[in-house]
Structures are given as C-alpha cells and as structure tokens.
Design goal:
Number of strands: 14
Largest sheet: 8 strands, mixed
Structural class: alpha+beta
Radius of gyration: 43 Å
Strand content: 5-15%
Shape: rod-shaped
C-alpha cells in the first residue's frame, strides 16, 4: 500500500527511464534500477564543460557495508563504501578525496538526484568528509583506494541514496589542464516510521500496570512461602499454590512480548509464556472445581444418599458413628494429590505437544519490511500454525468453561462455602476479562492500539483476578487470628472464676451460687481450651468468617464455643440452652440465618425433644434448670434419660451447625 505521492514518484521515474532510452541521455541511470555501476560527472575546470557518463573500470565505488533497503525514519543509520581510482589518473588534489558524503533524494516526480545539486533540491546530505588514498593491487591492477564510513538520517519517505566522492586530476606533462571528478553509486531506500518497543505511550502505560501486577503477585508468593506451614496454605496443596502463582506471573509477562512491535524473538516467546502460564494459572482452579463438585455429589459430610430417618438411629450403630465421624474431603487426602497432578499434567502435556509442533515445524516470524502496517503487533504464521494456535485456545477455553460450570453446580457449607465463593469469583474474573477482550477485538479490528491496550489489560486482569481467592483466604486467616488474640483474656476470666468458686464452696447456704459459678467457669474454660480446636471445624470457621470476623462480634465466638462444648457433653439440657439462646427468633443472642434454615432447625429440635422427653418439652427445660442449679452436676452422665436424649440431640445439633 503506497500513498498517491509515492505512486506519482514511481510514475515519474518510469517516465524518465523511457526518456533516457529513447533519447540516449546520460542522466542518472541509478534512478532507473542500475545500481551496480558507478556514474561520473567530469568537469573541465578551464572551460566549465561537464561530461556525464558511466564511469569505466578506472573509477569504481563499491558498498562495503550497504544499508538495508528499509530503515527507520528519523533514526541515523550507517554505510561504508570504498572508492577505487586507477593509478593512470594523476590525482592532484590535496587531500586526495576533497569531498565524500552520502546524498539522498526523495523519490518524487522531477527530482534531480545528482551529486552536484544542492540540498535545496529535495536532497538530504550527510556531513562532508575528506580522505587520502593508498595504493592497492586488485586483479593485477594498481589503484588508489580510500574507505569512507558515513551516517545519515532520513524522514519518512521513499529515497534514492547515493555514495559520492570528489577528486581532481591534472595533466601529467604540464599540469595545466585540471579536471574535477564527481563519482557516485546509488541504491533505493525506504525510510518508514517503525515502532520500537516502548516508543508508544500505550506501551509505557501497559508496562506500568504490569509492574503493579508483579508487585501484587510477588507479595502473594512471599506470603505463600512464609506461611507454607500454616493452615490457610495447607488447606490447598502448597505446590499447587506455587505453580498457580508462577503461572500468573508467566501469563502476565505475555504483555511484554505481545506488543506493538513484534520481533522474531517475541513471536516465539509470547505463545510459550501465554499458553504455559495460563495452564498453570487455571490448573489449580480446575482442580478445585473438581474437588467441590465431587464434594457435592458423594463426598459431603452426610453423603448424597443419606435420609432423615438415618439421623435417628442409635448412636452406637456403625452407620451413625460413621456419619458422625466422617468429614468432608480435604485437599491432599483421598487421592486429591493424584487428581491435581493429573489435571496440571494433562494441560501441560497438551501445551508441550501443540507448542513444539507449532514452533518447531512452523516457526512464526515478524512481519517483513515490505509490510506497510502502522503497527507490527502480529506475526507471520503459516496456515497450519494458525490451526494449532486455534486448537490451543479452544482447549484453554473449554477447560475454563468446564471449570465455571462445575463451580456453579457445586455446593458447600460453612468454611468451604466461603472458599467456593472465592474460587467462583476468580474464575469469573478470568472469563469476564477474556470476553471483553474478544468483543473489542471483533468490534475494532482496525484499531491496533486500542486492541493492544484492551488485550494487555485483559491478560493482566486475568493474572491478578485469577489469584484473588488466595488473597481473600489469607485475609480471612488474619481476621481469625485477630479474633484469637481478643480471646486470650478468657483464660484470665476462668482463673478468677476458679478462685471465686473455691471461696464460696465451704458455705452450705451458697449451693446455688456455687452451681452458677461452676457453669460459668466451665463455659469460660471451654472457650479458652477449645478456641484453637474450633478452627478445625469447617462449619464453624465459615460461620465465624461472616458473623464474627467482619464485625469482631465476641458473642458469635461464644456461640461457636458453646457448640463445641456441647459436642463434648451432648445432653438435652445443653441443646435446650443452645436453642433458646441462639436459635429462637426472640432469643437473647439470635444468630443471623435464613428463616427457612431456622424453621428446619426448630423442627429437628422438636423431634429431639419428642424422642427423649415423650413429647413434653418442659421436661427438657426442667432438666436444664436442675442442671443449672447444680443439683445434677455430679451424676448427670449417669441419668439414663439424659443418655437417651444425648443420642438424638447430638445428631440434631450437628445438623444445626452444618446448616449454619
């Protein structure tokens, strides 16, 4: 694609060539494709006559370092050429070559590109230089030789570049006749405005955003290495987390290679970093989607096929004991490591096969200099290579969509529910960035600069957005640690309660106070002793995140402690206390759950009361009151009715915490 002035220039040169052929004129033949011969302008200094002809073998100019036919506009380039003058010519000038430089004439109609025309005739000149010659032997002849190195800078256009030298000779007999020789050799050259990396403001902007992304990913990598032995890292396979973060860094680096000025090297590097990085980034997300989906369909706490009636079996039966002790699958257990290896290994194997075939058999190359695009933001690829690239993109898209679908179909409770939501958010971030980039690419195909910005931001957004789940996991861990710090005072309270109960134990009239102090002391000690163990419960961790971590509500922590204490002593009285304190609508510390969940818990509690109290709910409450007064403190475990109630209430409260 050439502009109208450039087309007129070619037409003008063709007209000149026809004129030269028809009239036999000795005009500058290097304007018409004769770039092998040297042309001379011989001026008789006595008469002023000028003879223009093709130089013979006595005067030649050769390119030692010839410039490229396409150079970057407004950027200096160099050339080295050699002048050979037969020793039969008596050089009389001092120095031998009085003038040497490069000329460049714009290839427009009417341009006179001769060495003797001034710079006002659409000519660009390099600085003038001078040189002496030395005698050399070439092909059995003796010559005066001089080597000239020069640099020149051209604006954007089509040019004719000539290397020009000048010297003078005199008659060997009397030296009275003096001739001035101007010799030149030409070549066509095009100066175009090329984009070198970071020559555009958009590239500088993307590099700045990439630097912020690197800081974020580097911080996450540092936290993962520092806390590798902590619970928030152990819940996800640490090696998978490291590969996940390394993949995000590699994928983000793609924006440094897939730029507006692609070279042969970047054409090879960007598909490697892009596809391998994305496989490592999405591998962990894909694995987690499989984990959550399997947990929904067969590996949950109670199992997909368990019925309500199973919850009312005797606690000593094997089926009930198994359900009570069985936990949801954890990462790193039950062959999950093997699943992770299979997922990541499969993705990398596909990348290895397709990339090695693509880059080995159909190596991409940067666009040639003849391509007149404004930006070279793509590479020259063979049709087979484009098919392989499409296959890689299709595999990545299919894996990402399958991951999103599995996460959408998955369900989880408690802590796993919050983790599931975080993973969903990360996958949605990647999908959103990819869809926006695809829409912009299809809508604005001719705007390379805009597409570059949108595409690069989508890559960086996917790299950072795809790892947000890890950041929020770390933040949750820190919030729970803060709550733990605030509960250290519980142990001090328990010590004070011990002293108070000891001082009042000897008074027979203070039995009721002693019982109350024992209960308070027991609750305080439960909170202090089991607080760290609380975090082993995924259900309670999930509740604490939403109800406690965000608000620093210590009452919610007390609820979790009471639930754990109930598991240590599963009696109907304790279940009644939990129900009336936390579950009922008008309870003192009513927890924040949906009305449907609250109603289900009420029904489960009523079934438990009916099973152990013959339908009389007051019997359970009275039992709780007697326990609170300390009358049954020492023999509560020996009560057969209480033990019968414990078998049912244990399952009921487990259902309560699981639903919560």
């Amino acid at each position: 694609k050439r502009s109208i002035p450039q087309m007129l220039a070619r037409l003008g040169m063709s007209t000149k060539f026809l004129t030269a052929c028809c009239l036999g004129s000795a005009i500058e033949a290097y304007l018409f494709g004769d770039y092998a011969n040297t042309y001379c302008w011989i001026t008789n200094m006595n008469s002023g006559q000028v003879l223009r002809r093709r130089c013979g073998s006595d005067i030649t100019i050769n390119w030692l370092q010839q410039p490229d036919s396409n150079v970057q506009a407004e950027s200096a380039f160099s050339a080295t050429y050699e002048a050979l003058i037969d020793d039969s010519l008596n050089i009389s000038s001092n120095p031998d070559l009085t003038h040497a430089n490069l000329h460049a004439c714009e290839a427009v109609f009417g341009s006179q590109c001769s060495p003797i025309v001034g710079s006002s005739e659409l000519i660009s000149l390099s600085p003038e230089s001078q040189a002496d010659t030395t005698r050399v032997q070439r092909d059995g002849n003796t010559y005066f030789a001089a080597t000239i190195y020069d640099e020149i800078e051209l604006t954007q256009n089509d040019w004719t570049l000539i290397a020009h030298v000048r010297f003078e000779t005199s008659d060997r007999v009397n030296g009275s006749t003096i001739f001035k020789y101007d010799a030149a050799i030409g070549m066509p050259i095009t100066a175009e405005r090329r984009q070198s990396y970071l020559s555009e403001s958009s590239e500088i902007f993307i590099v700045s955003v990439a630097a912020l992304c690197y800081v974020y990913l580097g911080r996450l990598l540092h936290l993962a290495i520092r806390d590798i032995n902590k619970n928030w890292m152990k819940q996800s396979l640490p090696w998978m987390v490291f590969l996940h973060l390394i993949g995000a860094i590699l994928f983000a680096t793609t924006v440094l290679f897939w730029n507006l000025y692609m070279t042969d090297e970047t054409c090879i590097l960007f598909p490697i970093f892009g596809h391998v990085g994305f496989s490592l980034l999405s591998g962990l997300l894909c694995f987690k989607s499989i984990f959550f989906y399997l947990g929904t369909c067969g590996y949950t706490t109670t199992g997909c096929s368990s019925s309500v009636s199973d919850q009312h079996q005797h606690p000593t039966s094997p089926s009930v004991r198994g359900q009570r002790r069985r936990k949801a699958p954890r990462l790193g257990q039950n062959g999950n490591s093997a699943i992770a290896v299979a997922v990541v290994g499969s993705l990398l194997m596909v990348d290895t096969i397709l990339l090695s075939t693509w880059l080995g058999a159909y190596t991409p190359r940067s666009l040639t200099a003849d391509d007149m695009r404004e930006f070279r933001d793509t590479c020259h690829t063979e049709p087979q290579a484009r098919s392989l690239a499409a296959a890689l993109v299709a595999v990545k898209g299919a894996v990402l969509i399958a991951t999103a679908v599995l996460l959408w179909l998955s369900k989880a409770d408690g802590y796993r529910k919050s983790e599931l939501q975080r993973i969903r958010s990360s996958v949605h971030n990647i999908l959103t960035a990819g869809v926006i980039a695809l829409i912009m690419e299809l809508a604005f195909t001719d705007d390379s600069n805009l597409n570059f910005i949108v595409r690069s931001l989508a890559i960086l957004g996917s790299s950072c957005g795809g790892t947000t789940w890890l950041f929020y996991t770390y933040r949750e861990s820190k919030l729970l640690d803060r709550i733990g710090e605030r509960q250290k005072s519980i142990s001090e309270i328990s010590e004070e309660s011990d002293m108070l109960s000891s001082s009042t134990a000897a008074a027979p009239n203070n039995i009721r106070l002693m019982g109350n102090n024992k209960i308070k002391n027991r609750q305080a000690m439960n909170s202090a002793k089991v607080f760290e163990r609380l975090f082993d419960s995924e259900i309670i961790r999930g509740y604490m995140l939403y109800q406690c971590a965000e608000t620093y509500d210590t009452e919610s922590v007390q609820f979790c402690s009471d639930v754990y204490a109930f598991k240590e002593e599963p009696t109907l009285a304790y279940a009644t206390e939990l129900f009336e304190t936390y579950i009922e609508d008008d309870s003192e510390k009513c927890i924040n759950i949906s009305s449907t969940v609250r109603e289900n818990i009420k029904k489960a509690y009523e079934r438990a009361v009916a099973a152990c109290g013959n339908g009389d709910r007051l019997s359970g409450i009275k039992e709780y009151q007697r326990r609170r007064d300390g009358e049954l403190w020492n023999n509560i475990d020996a009560n057969p009715t209480t033990q019968q109630g414990a078998s049912v209430v244990t399952t009921t409260t487990t259902t309560t915490t699981t639903t919560t």
